[in-house]
TrEMBL record:
Pfam families: Glutaredoxin (PF00462). This is Glutaredoxin-C9. The keyword Cytoplasm applies. It is found in: Cytoplasm.
Length: 136
């Protein structure tokens, strides 16, 4: 896995649309819902993002700043990006922008508002520890 810094200075595992250690044969690219579900269930933290989205950058910086190495899926660089985004719209269900979308421990946490609220009220770090994303 190659780590690079993008324009925002955030280190990412790669510049492609999806970064995972799972072999391509286990990634169910034929159905976006299955892909989202598999990614969420096999990674401690998953962040669905758009490379141009400023709030996505805030979410990435917060997670990296806490010492978390999330799996980042840049939807605008992924072949199934629009289909995955449609799935995220259904999860959000209140008409808000679906990115950033954060999954912790296999469960949908929410967007930037929920992520920041959890950070401010002190519940984010325990969630990350429980999911295995933090060890200290």
């Amino acid at each position: 896995m190659q780590v690079t810094a993008n324009e925002t200075g955030i280190q990412m595992a790669s510049n492609i649309g999806i970064e995972t250690e799972a072999p391509p044969t286990t990634m169910m690219v034929d159905h976006p819902y299955k892909m989202v579900r598999q990614l969420a269930s096999t990674n401690a933290v998953v962040l669905f993002s758009m490379s141009w989205c400023c709030m996505c950058t805030v979410a990435k910086r917060l997670l990296f700043g806490l010492g978390v190495g999330p799996t980042i899926i840049e939807l605008d660089h992924h072949g199934s990006g629009p289909d995955i985004q449609a799935i995220l719209f259904q999860l959000v269900a209140d008409g808000r922008q679906p990115v950033p979308a954060v999954f912790v421990g296999g469960k949908f946490l929410g967007g930037i508002e929920t992520l920041m609220a959890c950070h401010i009220n002190g519940t984010l770090v325990p969630l990350l520890k429980e999911a295995g994303a933090l060890w200290l």
